[in-house]
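Q&A log
Question type: sequence-to-structure
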Amino acid sequence: MRKAANVWDQRPLDVYDDRAGALRPGDAYTRPDCADRHHVATVAERGRGSHTDLLVYLPGEDRLIEVRIRRDRLVTVQRSLTTTE
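Response status: OK
Response body:
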């Protein structure tokens, strides 16, 4: 995750607004209330609940954290147009 985050801005990206439920591993996202980029490592699908559980990497803090976010929460999705290693 650290390596991918370090070169994220150098990759061709598809950037668009969508709901948090659309996030998948390898994506990055920002929220309107937080400018920090969150890189999605894992998405835990636990039924059809109203929330999505994510394991995300925060490059500014160099750590992984667990995040629970409402599926309908608006986020800005950044998805790499190239494959990751």
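Response note: Strands lie at 13-19, 28-31, 34-44, 51-58, 63-70, 74-80.
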